[in-house]
Write a structure and sequence with these properties.
Blueprint: E1 2-6, H1 11-22, E2 26-31, E3 50-54, H2 60-69, E4 72-75, H3 82-87, H4 89-110, E5 113-119, H5 146-167, E6 171-176, E7 179-180, H6 191-200, E8 205-208, E9 214-216, E10 218-219, H7 220-232, E11 239-243, E12 248-250, H8 251-261, E13 268-271, H9 273-277, H10 292-298, H11 306-321
The structure holds nicotinamide-adenine-dinucleotide.
The site of nicotinamide-adenine-dinucleotide has 28 residues, from helix 1, strand 2, helix 4 and strand 5.
């Protein structure tokens, strides 16, 4: 099977390429390297089943050729990360809405199955857990740009569902929760790589807000395993599926845990949201997925314990720094 991975030089994309190649699949990547890196896929370059194009998913002619040549698309390319989206509000919306529209239109033209990456951000300001795929979604106003990421991904979801309902296209929407592991960069506001790099330097670990907001964290290997099974799964067309871990932790406790596991002497400091992200920033206070649907579709749920994930990720950053 030949699989086109958009955003394949990114964090999730490059790990997915590794898994696909290890399973004997052919892989084609398109990535504009805006947040990804050729270093993430350098080890695959000479593999006979691997090819990549450095270009944007907004290049419809190239996307037409790449999609015509593949059997299935995993559409991961997007403007990602709260910090990145706040700093690049317009291009983020263009990439996330127009880029996905291009991918879906061409998937339909050539009748190819497409998995579209969405995010737990689409749930918005819920306080209950676990979050189920058919829950209502609660957002703040458009003047609070943070919600543009969620809203743009929600438009992607509506578009994918509309293609399924009107054209019978095989679309599967994957709502990924915070995914962590080696190769994730802390440059665009991702909390775990940022905390680990601060801890390894014995710099202050900077918690935004009061640290009482909670999250679950999913190991990258579990996420790509779930995506691979969804590629192969014959069920799930037109569905939204959560992919996430279920071990909930507050961000203040996460900072403490990372400091302890890294053997660091960093102090933990709390920075008000407006100092970190500017005024009008709102956070999501809780985000825990229901994984019932995922289990029913692929008989697999992410279950790597948080301590193990953090240990492996700390080792990665320690080796990278030395
Ligand atoms: N990592 C997470 O915790 C998480 C959580 C929820 C959803 N997601 C979703 O998973 C997907 C992958 O995220 P990631 O964490 O690997 O981030 P990432 O930034 O590492 O990967 C995104 C990739 O897309 C590429 N890209 C961006 N705009 C592009 C364009 N116009 N043309 C071509 N390539 C482009 C980037 O260069 C990058 O390599 C995204 O769609 C994201 O919204 C990730």
């Amino acid at each position: 099977m030949k699989i086109l991975v958009t955003g394949g030089a990114g964090f999730i994309g490059s790990h997915l390429c590794d898994l696909l190649i290890s399973r004997g699949e052919e892989v084609s990547v398109i990535d504009d390297l805006s947040t990804g890196s050729l270093e993430n896929i350098a080890h695959l370059n000479s593999h006979p089943h691997f090819q990549y194009s450095v270009d944007t998913i907004l290049n419809a002619d190239l996307m037409d050729r790449l999609i015509s040549e593949c059997d299935c698309i995993v559409h991961l390319a997007a403007a990602v990360g709260v910090k990145y989206v706040l700093e690049n509000p317009l291009s983020s919306i263009e990439t996330n809405i127009l880029g996905t529209e291009t991918a879906l239109k061409l998937a339909n033209k050539y009748r190819k199955k497409i998995l579209v990456a969405s995010t737990s951000e689409v749930y918005g300001k819920h306080m209950h857990a676990p979050l189920k795929e058919d829950d209502n979604l609660i957002y703040g106003p458009p003047s609070t740009m943070r919600w543009s990421y969620a809203a743009s991904k929600l438009v992607d979801e509506f578009t994918a569902i509309a293609y399924h309902r009107t054209k019978k296209l095989n679309t599967v929407i994957i709502r990924c929760f915070n995914t962590i592991g080696p190769r994730q960069t802390g440059m665009y506001g991702m909390v775990v790589p940022r905390f680990i790099q601060q801890a390894l330097r014995d710099d202050p670990i900077t918690v935004f807000g009061d640290g009482k907001q909670t999250r679950t964290f999913t190991y990258i290997e579990d996420v790509v395993q779930a995506i691979y099974r969804l590629i192969k799964c014959e069920k799930g067309a037109g569905e939204v599926v959560n992919i996430g871990g279920t071990e909930e932790i507050s961000i203040a406790d996460l900072a403490q845990k990372i400091r302890d596991l890294a053997g660091s002497s960093s102090e933990i400091v709390f920075i008000p949201y407006d100092k970190a992200y500017g005024k009008d920033f709102e956070d999501m206070m809780r985000r825990v997925p229901s994984v019932e649907k995922l289990k029913s579709l692929i008989d697999f749920v992410p279950d790597t314990p948080l301590d193990d994930i953090l240990r492996r990720t700390i080792e990665y950053f320690r080796a990278k720094a030395s």
